[in-house]
């Protein structure tokens, strides 16, 4: 068995050497070897246009069993690439890997990213780009760290004092932040707010997106349930934000726990390694943990105790 594994690794190593040689020949100075022994490489990709000039850096680590059994570990560095756009590009790269499993795919990834940059440039030229991010020279230099979430800022940003929005006079609910979970370089963190109106749901999202790190997350999945006392019904909805079916799973969790007048958001910063079904486990664990911490549902231990009572915070009525 060991001989078979060694032969497979030798085959993968040879395939990697041939692929790297080809990419170096194709892309020249754009291709960079960071650490050949550790199989770490980098390529600078641009849209080949002068105005607007967009660039992105794709850093790659080739595991020993790539391409036969594992995908490359990758990281996209681009200060202008955020939120839904980053998720769209990441999903495109993952789709390419799934479609070409067992094959060398780096050339396909590079060209997919180049096509993405050209498409974005064309949208910017004709005014179709809804959110333009101004990037300073300093941000471009520090781009390597731009996408990495500074989770300390999220934990510290928990001021419960609400602020008011002019004529609507409806308060932004206090937002709590949960403990991050990290698995294979992907980080998940939950956020929770009490909500009693759809307007407050929107206000919570707007407040969260003021935080640059949350706004740059690969996915911001959310679900909420609002109890309409006069009709004895629930107003509820969810959003996947590019993580297919994650929002529905989270809403189902809220329904099972029978929580009300609450909104839960889980931010995921993708780390370059596919997690498969484990990502849904982490998303729901983050959601449940913060619901327990804030008293919306019982912990697992309390739930098994017949005498335990679920604590449910009193809802605040909108002004």
Structure, described:
The structure is a single chain. With 319 residues, the protein is an alpha+beta fold. The protein has eleven helices and ten strands. It has helices at residues 2-27, 83-99, 106-125, 137-141, 143-146, 151-156, 198-208, 212-215, 246-257, 278-293, 300-303, and strands spanning 31-35, 40-46, 55-61, 73-77, 176-177, 181-183, 186-194, 219-228, 233-239, 262-269. The strands form two sheets. Strands 5, 6, 7, 8, 9 and 10 form a six-stranded antiparallel sheet that branches. Strands 1-2-3-4 form a four-stranded antiparallel sheet. A hairpin with an 8-residue loop joins β2 (40-46) and β3. α2 runs antiparallel to α3 (106-125) and α9 (246-257) packs parallel to α10 (278-293). The longest helix has 26 residues, at 2-27. The radius of gyration is 23 Å and the shape is elongated. The termini are far apart. The relative contact order is 0.10.
* Number of beta strands: 10
Radius of gyration: 23 Å
Anisotropy-based shape: elongated
Element-by-element helix/strand order: HEEEEHHHHHEEEHHEEHEHH
Give the integer mean of the pLDDT values. Answer: 77
User: What's the N-to-C terminus distance?
Assistant: 70 Å
Give the helix proportion (percent range): 25-40%
Q: Regions with pLDDT < 50 over 5+ consecutive residues?
A: 1-5, 128-168, 300-319
User: Sheet bearing the most strands, described?
Assistant: 6 strands, antiparallel
SS field, number of helical segments: 11
Strand content: 15-25%
Helix/sheet category: alpha+beta
């Amino acid at each position: 068995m060991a001989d078979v594994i060694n032969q497979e690794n030798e085959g993968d190593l040879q395939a990697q050497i041939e692929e790297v040689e080809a990419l170096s020949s194709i892309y020249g100075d754009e291709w960079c070897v960071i650490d050949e022994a550790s199989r770490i490489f980098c390529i600078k990709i641009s849209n080949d246009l002068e105005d607007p000039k967009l660039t992105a850096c794709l850093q790659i680590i080739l595991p020993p069993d790539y391409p036969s059994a594992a995908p490359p570990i990758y990281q996209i560095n681009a200060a202008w690439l955020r939120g839904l756009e980053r998720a769209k590009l990441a999903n495109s790269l993952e789709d390419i890997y799934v479609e070409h499993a067992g094959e060398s795919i780096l050339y396909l990834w590079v060209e997919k990213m180049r096509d993405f940059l050209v498409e974005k440039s064309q949208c910017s030229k004709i005014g179709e780009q809804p959110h333009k991010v101004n990037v300073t020279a300093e941000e471009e230099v520090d781009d390597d760290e731009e996408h990495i979430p500074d989770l300390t800022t999220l934990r510290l940003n928990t001021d419960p004092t609400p602020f008011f929005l002019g004529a609507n006079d409806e308060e932004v609910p206090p937002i709590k932040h949960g403990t991050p979970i990290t698995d294979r370089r992907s980080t998940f963190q939950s956020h929770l707010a009490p909500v009693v109106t759809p307007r407050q749901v929107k206000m919570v999202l707007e407040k969260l997106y003021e935080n640059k790190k949350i706004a740059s997350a690969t996915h911001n999945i959310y679900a909420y349930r609002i109890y309409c006392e006069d009709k004895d019904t629930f107003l509820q909805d969810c959003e996947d934000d590019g993580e297919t079916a994650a929002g529905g799973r989270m809403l189902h969790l809220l329904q099972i726990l029978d929580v009300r007048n609450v909104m839960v958001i889980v931010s995921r910063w993708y780390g370059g390694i596919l997690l498969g079904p484990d990502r849904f486990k982490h998303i729901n664990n983050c959601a449940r943990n913060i619901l327990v911490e804030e008293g919306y549902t019982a912990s697992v231990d309390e739930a098994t105790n017949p005498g335990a009572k679920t604590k449910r915070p009193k809802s605040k009525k909108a002004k």
